[in-house]
Specification:
Elements: H1 2-8, H2 13-28, H3 34-40, H4 51-57, H5 72-78, H6 80-85, H7 89-97, H8 109-142, H9 150-172, E1 178-179, H10 181-190, E2 200-205, H11 206-222, E3 229-234, E4 247-251, E5 257-268, H12 277-296, E6 301-302, E7 306-307, H13 313-323, E8 328-329, E9 335-338, E10 349-350, H14 351-354, E11 358-362, E12 365-369, H15 373-381, H16 398-401, H17 407-423
Parallel strand pairs: 2-5
Antiparallel strand pairs: 1-2, 3-4, 3-7, 4-5, 5-8, 5-9, 6-7, 9-10, 11-12
Organism: Methanobrevibacter cuticularis
Domain LicD/FKTN/FKRP nucleotidyltransferase: 170-382
InterPro entries: LicD/FKTN/FKRP_NTP_transf, LPS_cholinephosphotransferase
């Protein structure tokens, strides 16, 4: 080896020293594998040199690699300064590159670290771009005037009239309700609908919810609206293992869709020290068990798909069985939680956050709202509820209506009928 180096370097002491130092470090770092090199290059002439000599003075120029631990082609491709200088990539790496933190190849852990850092940098840049779009949409959808059209306008107008009907029915029967979750968010943030929303959410305490169930169908029939809408409590599409038991008011077109969800809420007796993850897990468990018991009680469902609107004694027994375990009650208390039946995110709500109810403007009309809608929305959506979320969720309802013939005509007919009923509602 030494005689070959002296010969190739023509006796230049500086170059000879540099090569010998490089050979030593190559062996130290185990960067040359003689078996690997010979296996991949069986036709090399080794008559007067070793495999390592061949790579150092000839092989690297032919694109050969010294081992699995070093990829000279990758090294030259990644580091243009080494490539342009004509240096042997392995010698450069052991003498300079390793100390400089350069990457020996795609098997080098530093390669993955470098790749992660590079990807993180790209990701941050993309996040900046996406965030700029979100801020732009904040300006467009929150600070500017937007109006729906086509199917969305039909759906929103229909929902608004149904909400006005619910409001009239509740006033007539002294039932408290409040516009809830997405509808409340729309009222506070947009003065009406979230621009792409196509339904209404309402909350009621358990006693009012039970009372509303008893009189809703009668009011629909009394006002001649049987052909305009109906109401039901519907199962979740979850392989029959769960149940979505809020009241769902639907309108009739060529494709009947649910447009208003009415969620029950319950009072609960609890110490603040017990409001923790342990309780959340207990609630989730009882909610699962409640829904399992409901689903397994087949007689509660009409035609195997929908629950009867009016609750039965059996359903009340199941609810009491599970709610008693958590000290849920019909009597007023300091704290309120979502009922087992609904789909709302679990949270503890202070009684004085909701009551006494206040009025709030929604699409130019006044409806019932929690006393402190801002605190209420913060509990549900977090402190940035006044900004559009990073991920915008859509219902899939309108796609079933958009291309169906005569829907617009049916919508306007039903909206007109509901408007007449609401304008002349008898209390």
């Amino acid at each position: 080896m030494i005689f070959y180096i002296i010969k190739k370097e023509k006796g230049n002491p500086k170059n000879i020293y540099r090569k010998i130092k490089a050979y030593y470090k190559i062996n130290k770092y185990n960067l040359f594998d003689e078996s690997y090199y010979l296996e991949n290059n069986p036709n090399i002439d080794l008559s007067n040199k070793s495999p390592l000599d061949d790579y150092i003075y000839h092989g690297y120029r032919e694109g050969k690699n010294p081992s699995k631990n070093f990829d000279g082609n990758y090294y030259l491709e990644k580091y243009e300064d080494v490539k342009s200088s004509g240096q042997n990539p392995l010698i450069h790496y052991v003498l300079y590159g390793k100390n400089e933190g350069r990457i020996s190849g795609k098997n080098d852990l530093t390669y993955f670290k470098d790749m992660i850092l590079e990807n993180n940098s790209r990701l941050k840049q993309q996040e900046k771009i996406i965030d700029s779009y979100r801020r732009l949409f904040d300006v467009i959808f929150i600070d500017q005037d937007f109006h729906p059209k086509n199917t969305l306008k039909d759906v929103q107008d229909m929902c608004l009239e149904i909400l006005k009907f619910v409001d009239n029915v509740c006033k007539k029967h002294n039932i408290d309700y409040w516009i809830d979750v997405g509808t409340l968010l729309g009222a506070v943030r947009h003065g009406g609908y979230i621009p792409w929303d196509d339904d209404i959410d309402i909350g009621m305490m358990r006693n009012d919810y039970n009372k509303f169930i008893q009189i809703l169908d009668d009011e629909i029939k009394l006002n001649g609206l049987e052909n305009v809408m109906d109401s039901r409590r519907q199962r979740l599409f979850n392989n029959g293992k769960s149940v979505y038991a809020c009241i769902q008011m639907k309108y009739h077109t060529s494709y009947s869709l649910g447009m208003i969800d009415i969620f029950p809420y319950d009072y609960i007796i609890i110490d603040e020290k017990d409001m923790n993850n342990d309780f959340n897990e207990k609630y989730a468990k009882e909610r699962r068990e409640y829904r399992k018991d409901i689903v397994n009680t087949k007689e509660l469902f009409d035609k195997g798909t929908y629950m009867s609107l009016k609750k039965s004694n059996k359903e009340d027994e199941i609810l009491k069985k599970h709610s008693d375990k958590l000290n849920m009650t019909l009597k007023k208390s300091d704290w309120i939680i979502p009922g087992f039946e609904g789909s709302c995110t679990f949270r503890f709500i202070e009684n004085n956050c909701i009551f006494p109810l206040r009025n709030i403007k929604f699409e130019g009309y006044e409806f019932k709202s929690p006393k402190n809608p801002f605190k209420y929305l913060k509990l549900k959506y977090g402190k940035n509820y006044m900004e559009l979320p990073k991920v915008v969720l859509f219902h899939e309802r309108r796609k079933y209506l958009r291309y169906r013939r005569n829907n617009h005509k049916v919508f306007r007919k039903h909206i007109s009928k509901l408007k007449t009923v609401n304008d002349n509602f008898e209390f």
